[in-house]
């Protein structure tokens, strides 16, 4: 069964409001992990007190994924570090997502 994978990489400080948006939009679950890396603005070194980054992954129906993405864009893109992307995924137990 085909679903959307929404991946958000952002500042740890946004975890609670981000989870609320995910839940309010109707997604049934999510996974959050620590994230490190480098980009146009340089690298975030582990252990440096500048705030950690998190990676949030949500597998859900397409309309829910786009709804979450639009809300995050409207609320946070201007003032927070955030990378967001969507991908098609095939899942075995589609009823879970």
Spatial order of the strands forming the largest sheet = 2-5-1-6
Enumerate the spans where pLDDT stays under 50 for 5 or more consecutive residues.
Answer: none
| Bulk shape | globular
- Mean pLDDT, as a whole number? 91
What is the structural class?
A: alpha+beta
Q: How much of the polypeptide forms β-strand, as a percent range?
A: 35-45%
Question: How would a textbook summarize the main sheet?
Answer: 4 strands, antiparallel
Question: Could you describe the 3D structure shown?
Answer:
There is one protein chain. By secondary structure, the protein is of the alpha+beta class. Helices cover 26% and strands 37% of the residues. The chain has helices at 15-24, 62-76, and strands spanning 2-11, 31-35, 38-39, 42-43, 53-60, 82-90. The strands form 2 sheets. It has a 4-stranded antiparallel β-sheet with strand order 2-5-1-6, with helices on one face. β3 (38-39) and β4 (42-43) form a beta hairpin. It is globular. The relative contact order is 0.36.
What order do the helices and strands come in, and which of them pair?
Elements: E1 2-11, H1 15-24, E2 31-35, E3 38-39, E4 42-43, E5 53-60, H2 62-76, E6 82-90
Antiparallel strand pairs: 1-5, 1-6, 2-5, 3-4
Give a nutshell description of this structure.
The protein has two helices and six strands; from the N terminus they run βαββββαβ. It has helices spanning 15-24, 62-76, and strands spanning 2-11, 31-35, 38-39, 42-43, 53-60, 82-90. The chain has a four-stranded antiparallel beta sheet with strand order 2-5-1-6, covered by helices on one side. Strands 3-4 form a two-stranded antiparallel ribbon.
